[in-house]
Amino acid sequence: MGITKDVHLPTEAELTVPEVKLSGPALKAAAFHLGKYCQNVNNEFVLCRDELGDPRACIGEGKAVTACALKFLRLVKSNCAGEFTQYANCLDKSSTDQSYSVCRKTQAVFDKCMLDKLKMERPYYGYFAEVQIHDSKRPKPKPEPPLVFTDTPDALPADAKKPPAKYGSRYLFAW
Q1: Distance from C-alpha of 100 to C-alpha of 106, rounded to nearest angstrom
Q2: Is 78 inside any structural domain?
Q3: 156 in a domain, yes or no?
Q4: What is the mean pLDDT of residues 51-70?
Q5: Looking at the 3D structure of the chain, how many domains does it have?
Q6: What residue spans carry the region label Disordered (predicted)?
Q7: Is residue 39 part of a domain?
Q8: Does the pTM of the predicted model rise above 0.85?
Q9: Residue 87 and residue 160: Cα distance in Å, rounded?
Q10: How far is it, in rounded angstroms, from Cα 175 to Cα 42?
């Protein structure tokens, strides 16, 4: 794909946001609660990206997703840091594929802390796979107009004679 001088690219300042500096096991430990906490913001970003098809148009929504994740992780750190760290360490060190199944006890402790202190219940298995309706405040984009081909040939008149098929009927199974 080529880029011309007419293409507007965002500046470095527009793209710079504070990063979520966590390891994979820590993100995996927070994934269910984080997904539920930031669900609306994340859905808005995905909807923008899919509808507009231009990632440059959704920079603000992407920044909102990162800000929501950072806000959530600060809440976890201030309320359930010990339980979260223990759960993330279990995921990291108990199996080679960071399996949830070997860390159910530490998961239960973390989930109880999240419920008691932040009133956040862990979403049930399959919650994120269900169909959910997202109400967006952004205007719906205009649909693309249908393609118009100006060089199409004229249609045959209705009374035009059609020769019989050269090799017989195409409907072999119709008889």
Answers
A1: 10
A2: yes
A3: no
A4: 92
A5: 1
A6: 136-162
A7: yes
A8: no
A9: 77
A10: 56
